Amino acid sequence: MQYDVAIIGGSYAGLSAAMPLARARRKVAVIDAGQRRNRFAVHSHGFLTQDGSKASEIVEIAKQQLLAYQTVDWENGRVKRVEKVEGGFAICIDATRSITAKRLIIAAGITDQLPEILGLAERWGKSIFHCPYCHGYELNQGKIGIIASSEHAAHMAMMLPDWGDTTLFLNDYPVEEELLDQLATRGVRVEKRLIQEIIGHSNVLLADGSVIQLDGIFVTSKCILAQDWIFKLGCEIEKNSMGQAIKTNAMKETSVTGVFACGDVARLGGSVPLAVGDGMMAGVAAHRSLIFNT
Predict the structure, then answer these.
(1) Which domain covers residue 125, as residue numbers?
(2) d(Cα 196, Cα 208) in Å, to the nearest integer?
(3) 219, 242, 257 - which closes a domain
(4) Of 97, 138, 143, 251, which is most buried by a Cβ count within 10 Å?
(5) For every residue of 104-172, which 3-state class applies, written as one string?
(6) Are 9 and 87 part of one and the same domain?
(7) What is the pLDDT of residues 46-85, one digit of tens each?
């Protein structure tokens, strides 16, 4: 079937991108593999009118509201291949079926590459977090850990005392002495002993057998674009110590004509409110391109 716009990703950014297109009565397909980035977290915070709501419920309500528009189709499945064709793009879903669209919005999210520390992955989104604005308040100014795993860790450690009593675990990661001095002025303790494992709720077992009890831990993951078809499509990619993201302009256009990107896939560091805002911009931009750039 031929669509005006195909949106790959049915989470916050993708749903937001679809809404202005649906309200313009454009034919839209949303393709979703059902794996939100924040699926490990029960609650979402910081989004106006939805602060503290279940993350899954925000998506489900948005999906129901979107599908009330008759020009929107929902495709459950994983995109395997995207190719440029005459008049737009062909999208192969689950290697079993395909659709075509004049425009493409990528809202497929990213994969978090976590430090290889025993006990960390199973606590991700529950007692180990990536964003203090999203999860710091609920720690009630308790004891907070931050594990150094990227250049961004020291920056976050400078911020975290606003949310609690902070310890930076270097875990053999190099941090400049100047930064350590700055952290001291913020009251951040620096722990140089190696981490052996995360145990209990969010306690750190050190290599010497000592245990530091914490109410929560923050860690910077590396954002990875796990979809091979993004690279094959030819989108320009931004890379730094935080990971990878599709490069876009202010209107969320990528380097490939007719392709837009929004949400975490196009932003190094994100949140639900940012994803929703990015999605709205991408949807409006895609609609306007159908009118002015045909």
Answers:
(1) 115-219
(2) 8
(3) 219
(4) 143
(5) EEECCCCEEECCCCCCCHHHECCCEECCHHHHCHHHCCCEEEEECCCCHHHHHHHHHHHCCEEEEECCC
(6) yes
(7) 888 888 888 889 899 999 999 999 999 999 999 999 999 9
